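Appendix B.2, paired examples.
Example (i):
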Amino acid sequence: MAFISKDFRSPGEAWVKTDEGWEKKKVLECGGKRKRHSSEGSCVEAASSGNGSGSISSSQVGEEEEAACMPPHYHITIRCTREIAGFNGLSEAVKRLDFRRSVRDRKRFHYICAFLLLVSNKGIASLPGSAQRQLLQMVEEVASHVNDSQQHPNVLRVLALKLDHIVNQENQKCWGKPLGSTYLWQEHVARIKRIQRVASQIEIREPDPQARPKLHELPEECVREIILCIADHRDLESAAQAWETMAKLVSEQRIWRELTRFHFNQRQISTILDLDKIKLMGDAKDWKQIYHQLRRTYGVSDDYQYAEVLALCRSCRCLFWPSDGHPCILDQSPDYKQRVEQAGGQLALAQPVPPAQFLKYFSL
């Protein structure tokens, strides 16, 4: 039968021209404001609700964007049934969840980098072209952020080495040429070279030589409080090698005891102690050895490795950042909202989504 809509030429999607190309208007509204072209005819709408024309002015788009500002979120299909058939697109999910600008958020930086490393290990070249471009733009944003902030250069170097391996691997396919668009691959190679150039030229500089006090001038009590904020044992071991005072503080039992209690619950700690798998030093416990035994037995949860983790709303099947929130069906159903509040609130229905779980939604 004939397809009936306001405009017979398309299903009615509104497209907006940005500096990066054409994008769906609903994606831009969800991902926040982005710089748009100021030229006329920059926005094309296939289905107009008023005058039947195929375009709207940029001023109207700006006004509508102000009115329809939504936090980053992405509705996913958990499973397909006979009644519901859905498809999750990685490129659209990355845009709607605002991954690129989240790189400069301190709480989300490590989560985004872990996601990029996992995708690189699975192979960027096997993804659609739009997803490849989005992911490499995110890596370039990581390089820019590391260069500006002078922090986490090791993360950037790992990503640069992984991209170099991908380029060498793809050049060996199909008689020395990668599969797909030649123009797109040339664009990828140029961007990867820029990333590698930034990674090789980064030098950690002292913020201000005249700034006082320096770290080594602080009393031990202040340095101890700084060490207590570290949640990774590898960072503790690296800090111990940097400075003699750091080494003395890292060797304290309190540091490892707090780290153990941060990552593991009392039941897990008691299980290890009851099984007598830890050698005790007299009446005192060796908390460093206890921590490593617990780490080998239970592993370290991904939820504690990142300051903020994507969450999945069980009510509306929506991925979102907990600090931003998301539009939920609770807002339209007062009765259901009251039942949820009695059960513990909306956050009680939110399930954390580590990077590996996030990729499973896209069959990666």
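Example (ii):
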Amino acid sequence: MFTSTGSSGLYKAPLSKGLLIVPSTLSLLLALLFQHYQKFFTYNLQAVKEEFQIWRLICGRTVCLDLKDTFCSSLLIYNFRIFERRYGSRKFSSFLLGSWMLSVLFDLLLVEAVEYSFDLTISSLPSGFLGPVFALFVPFYCSIPRVQVTHILGQFSITNKTLVYILGLQLLTSGTYIWIVALSGLISGMCYSNSVLKVYQILCVPSGVAKIFSWTLEPIFSSTEPSSETRVGMGATVDIQRQQRMELLDQQILMSQFAQMRRQRQQQGGMINWNRLFPPLRHRRNANYQDNRQPEHEVLPPTEISEEQVARLMEMGFSRVDALEALRASNNDINLATNFLLQH
């Protein structure tokens, strides 16, 4: 999905893994085995307002009763796991909690506005953990760089974010009034992310609670570090296999040396001469690399850094110094540079 996250799965994203497993399992059980209990998980706003069944604001906004919504929201949560890796589980959970609570308020306000404007009676909304899922589109749009992948018919651009937007559109069209939930989620995401309102300082997970959950639940949902070995297709030729292994080795060397240089810069407090200590990318060689090997004394030309790539990394929250160093180290490859900055 994300070209910048690699194939590391749910590593360093225990909360995302829990949100994938627990609500999806409950949704399947309610749909297949315990259908007579579905009424307790209906997001019935009429019962909340008239009968004061406040508990429906919790149960009705946790588990999806529609399996299509469960599938789409699970895929979106899996894609949005990058924010947990970037911000940490506590800050990520604070965003989910804050947007979840704010979306309750906006759900009620939007329903009242629609009923007053169009003389409609909306008794219930689609159930599930949908408000925070739509709220995550706000940081996704603002902080994830748009990298072009290909074109369709020579005009329509396909980027690394296209599939996520398609999933969001699919989820948006799955129900009658789900657009209300989506709109309230987007508004809550913008309010929580707004530095002027400073909602994140109020609606956050206390450090003590975060420690308790890290001791109890994190060992259950934590994932092992992905293996450094990558499977090579069985149908690949020997040259392709060698090329893929050399590319993997390049990435491993780059990431380890980048971490070492960054630690050294933090200790010394100065800039690092990447061209002297870290050649941009070593020359990739084919099966006859021994015959075409460059002399060791040959100096590679310095890599020209694209200001557009620097701007994209800075939009993700990284400093200009780190962005320049990562792009120099990765030969101006924004995918490798993003991986370096996210994982170190």
